[in-house]
Each structure stands twice: as C-alpha cells, then as structure tokens.
Amino acid sequence: MQETFSLMVHGGAGALDNVKDNKMALRYLESIRTVLEHGRDILNSGGSALETVETCASLLEDDPVFNAGCGSVLNENGKVEMDAAIMDGRDLSAGAVAAVSNIANPIQLARLVMAESEHVMLISDGAMNFAAHCGMRLTPDHYFFTPDRVQQLEQAQLQHRIMLDHDESDEISEDQKYGTIGAVARDIEGNLAAATSTGGVVNKRMGRVGDSPIIGAGVFADNQTCAVSTTGFGEDFMRTVLAKTVSDAMELLNFDAKGAVEYGIEYLLRKVKGRGGMIVIDHQGNCAADFTTQKMIHGWIEKSGQSYASF
Q1: How far is residue 171's CA from residue 143's CA, in Å, rounded to a whole number?
Q2: Residue 180 catalytic?
Q3: Which strands sit side by side in the sheet containing 287-291, from one edge to the other?
Q4: Per the CB 3.0–4.6 Å rule, which of 138, 228, 233, 308 could disulfide with 275?
Q5: How many CB atoms are located within 10 Å of the residue 242 CB?
Q6: pTM of this structure
Q7: Above 90 in pLDDT, residue 298?
Q8: Which position has the higher pLDDT, 154 or 217?
Q9: What pLDDT is stored for residue 171 in this prediction?
Q10: CB 52 within 8 A of CB 43
C-alpha cells in the first residue's frame, strides 16, 4: 500500500480580471484551500480517490463564485443546463450527464449513472428521469438564479452574442473566464479518479454540450497513466480529445505529469490555438498544471504535503 496521496482541484481559466480586486482573489483562494482540506481529510482517513473527487467537485458546485451547480450561468432561454462527468481509474468506469437542470450537484448524478446504470452518459430528460428513479431531490430554479448570472445573461442578450463566465469583452478575447470546476486525486492505495462539472457559457444555445461530460476530452482517469480534468473553451478540448491525449502521451512517451501536461498544452495550441488549461496527477502521485490563458484558478496537495492555491 502506498503511504501518500495527492489531490488537485480547479475553478476555471481565463484572464480573471476580477482577481485584481484583492477581496475577490482571496475569496477564490480561500474556497480552493477549503476544498483541498476537505479532500485531505477523506484521503488521510483511507478514503478512495473516487469518493474524494466527487466530494471536492460537489463542494465547488455549492459555491456560487464558480460556474457549476448553484453558480451556473444561464442559457438563451434563461435556464440552467449543466454538464458533469466522473471517472474511476481502477477499471475505466465512468458516468456523465449533460443538459440537466434543477440538480444541485450534477457530479453526484454522474456518479449514480456510473454506479447504478449500464450506461456512461445520460442527457436532458433522460438524465432527469434517471435522477427521479434514483430518488434524487430536485432543487428549485431560484437556487440557481443569482443576481450576477441574471445580469450576465441580460448583457449578453443585449449584445446578441454568447459570453463566457465573467466576460465583458468580445467573444474571442483573452479577457474571458472559462467556467468549469474539476478535481483529480490519487489515494493511498494508488488508485486515480477525476471529475469535471460546469454550467457552460452565458446565453448558449439550448442543448449545447461542452467538453466537461465527454470522457477523454474534459475528464479522464486510468491507474496506469494519470487523472486529468480540463477547463477552457470546450469545443477546443473536444476536437483535440485532450484529456486522453495527455494520458496517451504518458503511456507511449513515458512522460511524468509535468512532461505530459507540457505535451498536451503544446498540442492544444498547435492544433487549434486552444484556450484553457488542465490539472493532472500521474500514477506516481506527481502533480502538474498548465494553461494557455493568462490565469487558471487551481490548487494542489502533492504526496500528502502542504496545500497550495494559485492563479
């Protein structure tokens, strides 16, 4: 049995202009550190990587400053549609949901899809019916309708365009914040797991699905290689299947976490000029993160050490 564990979480990438406000910067970092310490408690007591990433992702979904769960942005119809996925590196088990509403913690529904169904992904009404079948309680609309999110939608619709979380610039500007949350972990038995969840983009078309619930794009975990969670402009990560690309680089080129992340970021830029970033823990417990945007909210505990939070 291994003696140490590792854990990483992220809360979105972009220019993050609002972190120039010291109060907001501290708010982000405090949340990341709090989630890391919750995860530490689970892993320290012998909990699994899978349990840890589900719990950490749920905590981030419960925090309205992040674009997932209660902080999710609104689509073109003023509704919340959320995506999430979770994967177990032990046997490549995975569960995902897309375009779900009135679910406080979509990552928990994704875990149920993995554990209680014969499928990997359920979407929209099918996912909602499955949630009811599992006895998952629905959360009323007002829980998700924060003043900031309503204002964002109104601004985007006035300008007749799609916006990304906390973006007040044009659609392709680096001033965007790509709102996704995620967690990756390696437990003391050496097992890996990954989770990713998002509310998508402001004023998105009804039914739009990004990379977050796509196995191999927004999330991937394999005990033989690594656990990956990405954040960024989802279409870029879907077209490059980036999470699996990072895992393949590790397996075929014998990279560690740092080398695989560097390879993945170079590939993302070279192929599609992709915008975003990723967190990765390899099968030895090494942590790495990188991004093509100006900043990425993330934190880590490497091999049972101190917790760190950074932009």
Answers
A1: 28
A2: yes
A3: 219-221, 226-232, 276-282, 287-291
A4: 233
A5: 28
A6: 0.93
A7: yes
A8: 217
A9: 45
A10: yes
